[in-house]
C-alpha cells in the first residue's frame, strides 16, 4: 500500500554500539537501505516516523518515500529490531521498491464471522496462521485478507487454496497450509468453561 509519507534519511559513516546509542538519544535509529541492484547505504532515520509506519493499518507493508539527500526512492521496511525489554526500536533495514515489479509480501488475516463448529458443536476456533503470502504490484498490496469462518464446522479447516484470490493479487507459498480450523475442546478447557458459567 503506497502512502504519501517521506522518511528523511541521513548517511552515516560511523558504526558501532556507541554511535548507535548516540543516535537513539537524539531520536534516530541506525538503518541500512538495500536492494534495487544498488549498493547498501548505511543511514540514520527518525525513530518516531518508523514507529508510526509500523503501527499504521498497513504496517510493514507500507510503501513510503525515503529521502537520502536529493535522491527520492520508494521503499518499505524489510526488517527491524526491538529492545527485548523496553520494546523500543533499535535498528531497521529498508528495501528499495520498483513500483513496476510484482513482489511477495506477508499480509495479515482478518477473521470474519462466528464459526458453526463453535456456536453449535462446542468446538474451539484456532487461528494457525495470522499472515498469508501474496504476490502483487506494490500499489495493490491489500491491508488484510478476510477469512470468513461462518460455515466452518468442527474438525474442518480453511487452507490457502480455499480462498479466492483478488483481481490484483495471487496467493503465494504452500496452497495446503492451514490458516484456521475448529478443534474439539480438551477436557481441561471444557472444565474451565463450565466453571466460568457456574460462577
Uncertain spans: none
Please state the CA-atom Rg, rounded to the nearest Å: 22 Å
What overall form do the CA principal axes indicate?
A: elongated
How many angstroms separate the termini? 47 Å
Helix count, DSSP H or I runs of 4 or more residues: 4
Question: What's the story with the biggest beta sheet?
Answer: 6 strands, mixed, barrel
Name the helix and strand elements from N-terminus to C-terminus, one letter apiece.
Answer: EHEEHEEEEHEEEEEEH
* Strand order within the widest beta sheet: 1-3-2-6-5-4
- The level of helicity is 10-25%
Provide structural commentary.
- With 199 residues, the protein is of the alpha+beta class.
- It is 17% helix and 44% strand.
- The protein contains four helices and 13 strands.
- The strands form three sheets. A six-stranded mixed beta barrel has the order 1-3-2-6-5-4.
- Strand 4 (63-68) and strand 5 form a beta hairpin.
- The protein is elongated.
What would a concise description of this structure say?
Helix content is 17%, strand content 44%. By secondary structure, the protein is of the alpha+beta class. The strands form three sheets. A six-stranded mixed barrel has the order 1-3-2-6-5-4. A four-stranded mixed β-sheet has the order 10-7-9-12, with no helix packed on it.
List keywords for this structure.
six-stranded mixed β-barrel, four-stranded mixed β-sheet, elongated, 44% strand, alpha+beta, 17% helix
